[in-house]
Write a structure and sequence with these properties.
The structure is a homodimer.
Chain A lengths: L6 H8 L12 H7 L11 E5 L2 H21 L6 H8 L9 E6 L8 H4 L6 H4 L9 E2 L12 H24 L3 E7 L13 H13 L3 E5 L25 E4 L6 E5 L19 H16 L2 H22 L5 E6 L2 E5 L3 H13 L5 E3 L3 E3 L8 H16 L3
Parallel strand pairs in A: 2-3, 2-4, 4-5, 5-6
Antiparallel strand pairs in A: 1-7, 6-7, 8-9, 9-11, 10-11
Chain lengths: 388, 388
Amino acid sequence: MMKTVRAWDVSTFINRPALGILPPENFSERLKESLLSVAPKGLPQVMTMACGSCSNENAFKLIFMWYRNKERGRNNVTKEELESCMINQPPGCPDYAMLSFMGGFHGRTFGCLATTHSKAIHKLDIPSLDWPIAPFPRLKYPLEDFVKENQQEEARCLEEVEDLIVKYRKKKKIVAGIIIEPIQSEGGDNHASDDFFRKLRDIARKHGCAFLVDEVQTGGGCTGKFWAHEHWGLDDPADVVTFSKKMMTGGFFHKEEFRPNAPYRIFNTWLGDPSKNLLLAEVIRVIKREDLINNAAHAGKALLTGLLDLQARYPHLISRVRGRGTFCSFDTPNDATRNKLITIARNKGVVLGGCGDRSIRFRPTLIFKDHHAHLFLNIFSDILANFK
Amino acid sequence: MMKTVRAWDVSTFINRPALGILPPENFSERLKESLLSVAPKGLPQVMTMACGSCSNENAFKLIFMWYRNKERGRNNVTKEELESCMINQPPGCPDYAMLSFMGGFHGRTFGCLATTHSKAIHKLDIPSLDWPIAPFPRLKYPLEDFVKENQQEEARCLEEVEDLIVKYRKKKKIVAGIIIEPIQSEGGDNHASDDFFRKLRDIARKHGCAFLVDEVQTGGGCTGKFWAHEHWGLDDPADVVTFSKKMMTGGFFHKEEFRPNAPYRIFNTWLGDPSKNLLLAEVIRVIKREDLINNAAHAGKALLTGLLDLQARYPHLISRVRGRGTFCSFDTPNDATRNKLITIARNKGVVLGGCGDRSIRFRPTLIFKDHHAHLFLNIFSDILANFK
């Protein structure tokens, strides 16, 4: 790679511009080659950010500004708003909220943390906000054996979302947006049906709330589509989609109508780092050239099929096998067994991750192929056979 | 530079590690060459972060954890704490607060924004927290003509700080920390005396609050010391010092006793970017080799002396000339005049910045020397002579 860098690229790697004020000359062109070339349908606007937490924090701000401007209509900002916001008080700092889901993870800064409910250690000792928290469906597996139960469970959660919106409005706290992960990752790789997400999107629209999909962990192709929410087949796209991690840079896509009504309302000094967009452009080129999204779908099927087979053979060790693309996981009987399995696997050269309280999750790279799946399944099958 | 990069460096520029889990092999060595080589006295611990806002957000978290652990003593975390924190409620999410100052700027994410009070546009429409806000001294210039008035003004502000801590405790909201900039930058380049900051540090200690100095804008040498708070001559160091901007990476230094009591309590995926530490190591090498801190002190004196001369000649256009090192500024009669002066200067090739509602601020690079000051002063003198 070093031999092919252009002068502009070298400058990008050794300088750190204040991106919002003084972007490199052809930065917008570079965005077309990188982030904008994979923008989710219906979301033509993009902002870059330095990390996943900042992406969600600023997406919340975008949503609150959009909501307030809707309420304001053609009225101007009042003197009272301008003065009260300086001392953290309404009406300038309105009593708005983001609705989130139990088990969700959206980051660790203060705004994000108020929507994160995956592990106590993330939240302990940190003051928070009284924002509504809805239950996330707890599906029973195998899905085909629990169709009716799972439908009821999802309906229960959706009903609770609507109840919370109404209940919070009654106490003058307005739910301006709903944030959700396509697959709850830190919280235990919890899935819901495409139908659940479509209905949730409808509820958001019905109540005038923005619909924010957090693809920080699911985005980038591993689920078999570039964005996991593309599986849902939404008629009306999400309003905002946040990303980070595999995208090399943080940031978010959004609909035109969410564009801030004045400059510097969504801003910080660096807004990420343009050198990461260069890396991302290369990554996207390779993804396309090697057809890696379809590869993830294919290899994921091999992995999932193998895991289902292991589940049938070792039901006392493996349950609730689930996944989309290579974004697979299963449950173990308890925390201790889970951690022991992870350690044994590591000693055999396989790095596995834990999530939730007793799940093991797979997050292989996009070049993970069927034969890697079989390699893993052979090793893991031995581990399970000898597990005491 | 490209010719001298080592293999490790190239790898650092083209990879993006999850720094907290899988740091590059000799990352801790590299920290010694970069951040730790300029650690403020008494603060041997460092965390890197991706931006200034994340640095302050995580510094607040560090302070809240430290405070809660102090309260907890030898008691264990209770089941009630672990459960209540998951739904954003006390006692798990305690009603703690950071005390900040009117006119301060500490970033734009939710926690930071609750301590930012510089411009309404930063805060409008964003829900906030009820945290105490103290007045920052409004000094009269020239300082030597208003010694008594300024002492009284600073005493008034310090008294208000103590009153707020007591008042908030009465309503069960505990001030766990105080955050302050050595020079309020966005808020208008507002200075206070070294004595003010020493007394504020004493108040923090007296009430058991952590003392957090935000050097995001002042750090890196421009004030004539590497850290602006080194001018104060504190007996007991600050507890936490945050940085970003000129340091190429965000992060914070802290005292040993503020070290989190468990891993992953202060954490995110990237924790900044190790390639920026490489750049910082080079920057620090140049600063030392070229004696750029003393240069900033010296060139700053030339700039300030020249500005005082212009103030004497054009008192209807320039007032309240102030500065430390090259971190200088002055007031203009109003917003319109300020913006007009900035535009005329830009058209003559001089980039000036505005801050507060009518100030012009200088933020030259560290290689700005006396002759640059004279070059500027000549141009600006002409501008003022011809200003209509």
